[in-house]
Design brief:
Elements (H helix, E strand, L loop, with lengths): L1 E6 L9 H5 L4 E3 L7 E3 L3 E3 L3 H10 L5 E6 L2
Antiparallel strand pairs: 1-4, 1-5, 2-3
Length: 70
């Protein structure tokens, strides 16, 4: 089972709260505006709890976390 994580660039406002919880998953985008992107969208299910916390910490609701088989 894998976890797929995404950031909606239209909703991200660069608060970077997700980076605090998962700095190896969420990285600053190349736009130089403080917004973030996902370094690797497919994560092991052992990271699910940390990713859900990062999702919950986003004030803009820009992060989605989905669990699936791959």
């Amino acid at each position: 089972m894998t976890v797929v994580v995404r950031v909606d660039p239209a909703r991200c406002r660069g608060h970077q709260m997700c980076v605090l919880g998962s700095p190896d998953v969420f990285v600053e985008s190349s736009d130089d505006d403080g917004t973030v992107e996902v370094a690797e969208p497919h994560q092991p299910d052992t990271r699910l709890e940390a990713l859900r916390l990062s999702q919950a910490s986003c004030p803009e609701g820009a992060i989605s976390v989905a669990v699936g088989d791959e």
